[in-house]
Write a structure and sequence with these properties.
The structure is a homodimer. Chain A is an alpha+beta fold. Chain A has nine helices and eleven strands. A six-stranded mixed sheet of chain A has the order 7-9-6-10-8-11, with helices on both faces. A four-stranded mixed sheet of chain A has the order 2-5-3-4. At the A-B interface, α1, β1, β2, α2 and β3 of A face α1, β1, β2, α2 and β3 of B.
């Protein structure tokens, strides 16, 4: 099976027959943008050994790669349309690997309403598996939710429980053991792009980001872009039942979760008067703090109102 | 210098201040598509050791990666708009490397009228340098030139001399020596996306492809997509002066150039009555054959009209 057979057998079905992909036979994909809409584009790369472990199942690699990329569209208030898949193989992949990998992509395509519009399949001699996904979404003109729009007095909303993915990664690395290993590793490999929040975001959110680099780091990005500070009330952060159990058992410091990436929950800046409306429709969401023009950067306070110091401010590749 | 410093110092200038890139500080880029236009998207990956040699200069890697990707837009009759840059580093790149790499990208951005709209910078532990570029272009509604539109009796046009890039690669591999080494290696590293032909293509071309996999293979793609055959008149193919000199000196079989990739010249199917018009404005173009519904696949004939057999039909990664 050469490169072209591989594409025809495994990648072509991912186009779901959409004419935009032109059967992966042309030089490019051809997309029409509905009038009144803008296109939102984001690229995410996942490399073996850096973003997923060498023994990760093909389905898990697929889920994580596509979902992490899609999450950036949700963070902009966009609806997903399609994606370009660039995949570099250190050696010819075996059919079982390809079948599982592409079945998982197709499952997520159906879950999130996207199709594969094209990409590039290459060999990477002497390298490791590398997957780079460029997602394309749509948002009504001037309705994109940027990082830079947070306002003084806005509530800081977190869309769901923090840290499950990070705990999953510790379990995968055998640095941690829990009674809920499968739950946590699933959270790591199958983050949930929060498209369910997009309609509310377009109406209410002044700013948004997804937590890929860690709560503190990503909140810092909103603060920097909006020229504001933010205060996190640590006791307002909810964890999953499984994570809560682990924290209560001791031996695991919840503070690690504040700088943990890979969650892909959203952080939103919304006016105080919209908080109740968002909570009503999104019970997993929580208000964990506020934005303020009186200071810069991120401050964390405990239940007694004392400032809590922190050092690690998130993931950097170098 | 961490990942964010690297992005701010070296990649941010590539956005040229365009608001669509949002200073590379947001989750995604935000593009507006002018009314009456469609978006054309293509992805090309270049990996060290596979697509460029380990000792390739950063500027050459940049030129080749961006130009090869842009060529796919030209092959669709599109004008270039912007690109997403995914780059995976096996170790932290040094400042001199980054400076040369990004200066070369900027030079090509100015030459071809594109800007960097976003991307992803990652580490790839235990891997090799991998660059995946997704280019985005625009074409008027229903004016994209596909591979599938060639018609019986169409002329087969090649946009410029064949094989210089392949000769350049042989020189880089020290398999060949010429009096014009610098000319050939430049052809390899700096292919010329043929946007100059785009206006004529939109009016006249029934089908187009760029020669990235080799003349015979890529012509085969047009034939398959258009359900036609094509005949190449070998003596109608022109080579560059430097290549001609090399062929005449002996020791180098011109047939190697028929299946050589990396040229990124265009192959066009145009009606016979448009050939003169195209030649007038594009003197480097040549008619090298015709399309026919009387046979399938690619046939080559020599100056005596005899069929010439061939085996190698182009590059495949596996």
């Amino acid at each position: 099976m050469n490169e072209f057979d591989l594409i025809a057998q495994y990648f072509l079905p991912l186009t779901q027959g959409r004419p935009e992909a032109m059967n992966l036979r042309d030089d490019a994909a051809l997309l029409s943008v509905p009038q009144g809409m803008q296109m939102v584009i984001s690229t995410d790369t996942m490399n073996q050994g850096t973003h997923f472990t060498t023994d990760a199942a093909p389905a898990n690699i697929a889920h994580k790669s596509l979902r992490a990329a899609l999450s950036d569209l949700a963070a902009m208030g966009a609806e997903p349309l399609c994606y370009q898949l660039a995949i570099a193989f250190p050696q010819k992949p075996d059919p079982a690997w390809m079948a599982e990998f592409t079945a998982a992509l197709l499952e997520d395509q159906q879950a999130f309403g996207v199709f594969c519009s094209g990409g590039d399949t290459t060999g990477i001699q002497g390298g490791v598996l590398s997957i780079s996904i460029t997602v394309i979404g749509l948002v009504p003109n001037d309705k994109a939710v940027k990082r830079s729009g947070a306002q003084d007095g806005d509530a800081l909303i977190l869309s769901g429980p923090l840290g499950d993915a990070f705990i999953g990664l510790q379990i995968l690395r055998r640095d941690l053991h829990s009674d809920d290993d499968a739950y946590f590793t699933r959270a790591y490999f199958r983050p949930q792009p929060r498209f369910d929040l997009v309609p509310a975001m377009r109406v209410h959110a002044h700013a948004a980001i997804d937590i890929s680099d860690g709560l503190i780091a990503d909140l810092g990005h909103i603060c920097a872009a909006s020229n504001l500070g933010a205060t996190i009330h640590l006791d307002h952060i909810r964890y999953s039942e499984a994570a809560q159990k682990l924290i209560e058992k001791g031996g695991f410091d919840y503070k690690n979760l504040l700088s943990a990436g890979d969650d892909y929950e959203l952080l939103l800046a919304v006016p105080e008067n919209a908080v109740a409306e968002i909570m009503k429709h999104h019970p997993s969401a929580m208000q964990i703090g506020t934005f303020s023009s009186r200071h810069k950067g991120v401050v964390m306070i405990d239940s007694q109102g004392h400032s809590v110091p922190f050092e690690d401010s998130g993931w950097s590749h170098f």
